[in-house]
Automatic annotation (TrEMBL):
Source organism of this protein record: Ottowia beijingensis
Keywords of the record: Membrane, Transmembrane, Transmembrane helix
Keyword check for Oxidoreductase: no
Source organism, top-level taxon: Bacteria
Pfam families reported for this sequence: MFS_1
GO molecular function: transmembrane transporter activity
Descriptive protein name: MFS transporter
Assigned GO CC terms: plasma membrane
Taxonomic classification: Bacteria, Pseudomonadati, Pseudomonadota, Betaproteobacteria, Burkholderiales
TM ranges: 21-41, 61-81, 88-107, 113-134, 146-172, 178-198, 219-245, 265-286, 293-313, 319-335, 356-374, 380-401
């Protein structure tokens, strides 16, 4: 466990592969579950539009609500994870997912769907600070590239599973049954994580006695953090098209069936998962070139989307191009996470990942409003071309991150923020830690999860 060892100044003891694999597997399962929640609503947009008489703009706004809550919550959750640990926050997220699924089961109209978006967004908020805090602390350094690959791959598998899962139950017993089944699935996964909770414990960061005022947010003065934020914002605005609108775009432009168009989304996610797998080896072999790997992947993806937008290849050819985009972007995923790790000051993992990955949620929040405007006016080609432009701009952001991490210009004084890791679970230290946290209501809500995770 490299973080703890580094904090003590000792050489890390060899960690058995089995232990690292257990951590990677549990975090991957949790990450897949969070990505599953991203698509609790979009695959059923055509159903909701017909049953509740909703426009694409109204449906897109549901995802804006989801990602506004997730994005603002993610930035805050990074501080909470550093203060109380990743494990109790993770358990609380699964309770939110269960509530989101039950809200979907009982939904009677637009506001019922809004509850789904709100609960799912709240549950999704802490996942990147939680996941990367656990991985960076508990997985051996030389296996982190593979850990990040498995993390990204599991997320894509979660995305790929959701449309198939919901459409299966929709065809079998109606769309409400899919939400009930999803609630049961989340409850089972939560039970597994609680049973294996020893693998998920992270050390808590506390303020140094001589820490200056405002040191908690000193990392925000690093320009590289905001370049990372911009990268996630731009690249995610492309992914939002595939998740939310690729199905109706393909139906409108080429007359493909609803089932075929929805399957294309699953193909995109599976291709992305394969790209993540390949990208893990790339990240492990060329760790010094992470920015260039990411830039090349995003650039290739932008070209493929342009080809799909032209419609030259027909319906299935265009869908194949969009699926191939998932593979191209997926290759850059592990290198992207290694790139962010380079930009992270020591002792601030939760806060930096929370802030940086909130760019992802911001992109998802903005994109449906922009694309919904074009979709309501039947500007389908323009919608895809705009997505390609955003992905091309993310290339510039990736190279900007690389310039600031590879050149060694990150100030050393911000590389060593005034925090230290503590081992054990001293009660008085925990009380001091809790008093430092602004969100006392959130902490009261997490105490139950802290007890079951002890």
């Amino acid at each position: 466990m490299s973080t703890t060892a580094a904090a003590s100044g000792q050489m890390p003891a060899p960690v058995p592969l089995r232990d690292d694999a257990a951590v990677i597997g549990l975090v991957g399962l949790a990450h897949a579950s969070s990505h599953f929640a991203h698509l609790l609503l979009p695959p059923l947009f055509p159903v909701f539009a017909q049953e509740f008489g909703l426009s694409f703009s109204q449906l897109g706004f549901l995802m804006t609500v989801f990602f506004v809550i997730s994005g603002t919550g993610q930035a805050s959750a990074g501080f909470l994870v550093d203060k109380v640990g990743a494990r109790p926050v993770l358990f609380a997220s699964f309770v939110s997912f269960i509530c989101a699924c039950l809200a979907g089961y009982f939904a009677q109209g637009y506001w019922g769907l809004m509850l789904v978006a709100m609960f799912a967004g709240l549950g999704n908020a802490p996942f990147h600070p939680v996941d990367f805090s656990i991985l960076n602390q508990r997985v051996s350094t030389h296996r982190l590239g593979y850990a990040f690959s498995a993390h990204g791959l599991s997320g894509n598998l979660g995305w790929a599973l959701t449309p198939v899962f919901l459409l299966f139950f929709t065809a079998w017993q109606g769309w409400r049954s899919g939400y009930l089944a999803a609630a049961l699935m989340y409850a089972c996964i939560l039970a597994v994580l609680v049973a294996k909770r020893a693998h998920l414990k992270t050390e808590v960061v506390r303020r140094a006695a001589d820490a200056p005022k405002g040191s908690d947010v000193a990392f925000l003065r690093l320009p590289v953090v905001w370049w990372c934020f911009a990268f996630f914002l731009l690249s995610t605005m492309t992914l939002a098209v595939v998740q939310n609108f690729a199905s109706p775009i393909m139906q409108a432009m080429h007359g493909v069936s609803f089932e075929s168009a929805t399957t294309m989304i699953t193909a995109y996610m599976l291709a992305g998962a394969l790209g993540m797998f390949v990208g893990g080896f790339v990240a492990a072999r060329v760790p010094a070139a992470t920015d260039r790997v990411v830039a090349g992947s995003m650039g290739a993806g932008a070209v493929l989307i342009v080809v799909a937008a032209t419609g030259w290849l027909g319906g299935f050819g265009s869908m194949a191009m969009l699926a191939a985009t998932g593979f191209a972007v997926g290759i850059g995923g592990p290198s992207r996470d290694m790139m962010i790790k380079k930009a992270t000051p020591k002792g601030a993992t939760g806060r930096v990942y929370g802030t940086v990955y909130s760019g992802l949620d911001t992109g998802f929040a903005i994109a449906p409003l922009i694309y919904g405007f074009f979709m309501d006016r039947a500007l389908y080609t323009a919608t895809l071309l705009l997505a390609a432009v955003f992905l091309a701009l993310s290339v510039v952001a990736a190279l900007g991150v690389g310039k600031r991490t590879n050149s060694g210009t990150t100030p050393e004084r911000l590389r060593a923020l005034p925090f230290s890791l503590r081992e054990g679970d001293n009660a008085s230290a925990r009380r001091r830690s809790e008093r430092d946290v602004r969100w006392h209501g959130l902490l009261r809500g997490h105490r139950f999860f802290e007890r079951i995770s002890a």
